[in-house]
Amino acid sequence: MSWSDERVETLKRMWGEGQSASQIAKELGGVTRNAVIGKVHRLGLSNRNGGAGSAGASAASEAPASETPKPAPKPAAKPSKPAAKSASAHPAKADPAPAPEEDKAEEAPAAPVTRIKPIIPAGQPLPPQPSTNEIDPKALAKVSEVEKKAKKLSLMELTSRTCKWPVGDPATDDFWFCGLPSQAGKPYCEAHVGVAFQPMSSRRDRRR
DNA sequence: CCCTGATTCGC
DNA sequence: GCGAATCAGG
């Protein structure tokens, strides 16, 4: 397999979308993630800058970017999920979130999305915006989505790499663990890691 | 343990 | 130029 123009294009696109090298390799087929990474480097787009031509030119100091101009209002999320405290306090409460349909440019088989979630106000292109953070709304939305396809594992079915996020009330029959694949040493899947580890900022105190 | 990207170096 | 092996995190 060689790096045909098309393949390189796909590589660039996916890399730009923030896809991991292994994902790209899998998509392209016939190459390993090493090959992908190697190519990425050779193309000089190892860093996620690439974009905006402006190659070379001054490369002295980087803008500190004190504040990201994000006009996106915060739709008072409804976080009932507990934030991992010190080293105890396990979350054990789940509220019947409506599970909004989050749709990306991924393969969406047949998702009758009737309700669109206008998180982004301005109707601009909105390319793969890295977004500094802003996990709250998104993370919560993802959790809701995730809980829909959670494997609902029982305690004994949990393995080293299954998400151990508890859902439901342990006192009822409606209790299970997420069970989705956790990634690295973390006890939770990506989505739950997102809510478990709050930036320690955000709502100082909750209204109650 | 699983994953990530980064780098090296023989080809 | 290519990519497996290796390195260095998480």
Automatic annotation (TrEMBL):
Residues 44-135 are annotated as: Disordered. It comes from the Bacteria. Residues 55-69, 77-96 have a biased composition (Low complexity). This is GcrA cell cycle regulator. It comes from Roseovarius nanhaiticus.
